[in-house]
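seq:
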Amino acid sequence: MTIIIKGSLKMHTKLEIERRFLLKNDTWREHASAPKTLRQGYLSVEKERTIRVRIVGEQAWLTLKGYISDATRSEFEYAIPLADAQMMMDTMCPFKIQKNRYLVEYSGYTFEIDEFFGDNAPLILAELELPSEDTDYPRPDWLGEEITADGRFTNAYISQHPYSTW
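struct:
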């Protein structure tokens, strides 16, 4: 994808278009995959950009995200050595979260359900990546209020302001 910035500069980037939701109930669990535990640490948290380290099992990534709109961000993600990620997490990431991620297939779409631990429990959110912001998507019975535009529910925000303190 090419984005034109300030009329002339062109930048090639990957876009992440994502809608986020609260959940009405736990019936999604009947169709969920086995969970994967994700640990995330934030090196930088600003509205315009975030830089995070993510560890899942024996794999790790460094991810840079840039704000475009509430539902759309530019995203650059790079695999990094696990030892480097752990060192960054331990020494450079003042804000961290941990969550289990489940995948739920529904009407040809994959919902990612994140169940948070620690000070962010009992928060559970659903995320759905889409090809465009105006894509129609299914709404299963367990899908609750859309919170895409509510910045309090981003992972970066709850790493600094745990859900239990709201």
